[in-house]
Amino acid sequence: MQGQFITLEGTEGGGKSTNLRFIESFLTEQGMDVVVTREPGGTEIGEAVRAILLNNDFSAMCDDAELLLMFAARVQHIQEKIKPALAAGKWVISDRFTDATYAYQGGARGLDMQRIAQIEQWVQQGFQPNLTFIFDLPVEIGMARVLARSQQSGQGIDRFEQEKRSFFEKVRATYLARAQQSPERYEVLDASQPLASVQQTIQTRLQNFL
Ligand code: TMP
User: Fold this and answer.
1) Which domain does 13 fall in, by range?
2) What is the average pLDDT across 113-128?
3) Which of 75, 105, 116, 124 has a CA that sits 20 to 30 A from residue 152's CA?
4) What CATH number did the domain enclosing 101 receive?
5) Quick check: 186 and 199 in contact, CB under 8 A?
6) Are 5 and 92 in contact (CB under 8 A)?
7) With a 6 A CB cut-off, is 136 part of the ligand 1 pocket?
8) Banded pLDDT at 209 (limits 50, 70, 90)
9) Going by C-beta distance under 8 Å and a sequence separation of 6 or more, which residues neighbour residue 163?
10) d(CA 81, CA 74)
11) Among 191, 176, 168, 139, residue whose Cα is nearest residue 20
């Protein structure tokens, strides 16, 4: 079977990282060659762009610059890493991709969705994930988890995590609206459920997919 491209999305604190490792182990057990990656980032250049995007010192960054940096990191990621891996028959799992741009820069920052779609077309030329998991949960639960994690690690919060609740409500609503528009590509998970139950749903969807 040809390699497949799976993406994980959602507001902060939905358990994407834990479940990414679960998906990786499950697919590896099924004999797939798996590449795990993330956005913004995934390549040396993309990770350098990520450091700019998440840097709290750059509060002056305008929304259009943020949008273009997301796509700059993405086009490098697609050309250098994602497409070559898929062509070699590998499965690629990415922690976020273009749905995040619609949700954060479109829904939450308020940039024109048509303009995002034009840049997406220019950069991706129809290239899309085969399957997208959305880790959905009430914003206040996610924000509390992020806060607890940052206090535990002492790392502080990044330029996006410091946004207000209303920002993440818009992110969440945009993800859900996109999933409703094209239900065949998305699996919306109730990330407020116990981990075992979330992982059961993920496993069932992956089994159907295989
Ligand atoms: P992460 O916290 O999931 O690693 O993602 C980094 C942040 O970047 C997260 O707050 C969401 C944001 N982001 C966007 O705003 N637009 C995008 O296109 C992507 C990929 C991420």
Assistant:
1) 5-209
2) 98
3) 105
4) 3.40.50.300
5) no
6) yes
7) no
8) confident
9) 108
10) 10
11) 191
Number of domains in the chain: 1
Ligand 1: does its nearest atom lie under 6 Å from the Cβ of 14?
no
Task: Identify the helix (H) or strand (E) that includes residue 186.
Answer: strand 186-190
Decide whether any atom of ligand 1 lies within 6 Å of the 102 Cβ: no
**Other Cβ atoms closer than 10 A to 5:** 22
Cα separation, 80 vs 202, whole angstroms: 28
Measured in Å, residue 1 CA sits from the centre of ligand 1 at 30
Q: Which residues pair with 37 in a beta bridge?
A: 94
Measured in Å, residue 209 CA sits from the centre of ligand 1 at 26
Question: What are the backbone dihedrals phi and psi of residue 193, each rounded to the nearest 5 degrees, phi first?
Answer: -75, 160
Quote the pLDDT of residue 1. 62
7-63 pLDDT, tens digit each: 999 998 999 999 999 999 999 999 999 999 999 999 999 999 999 999 999 999 999
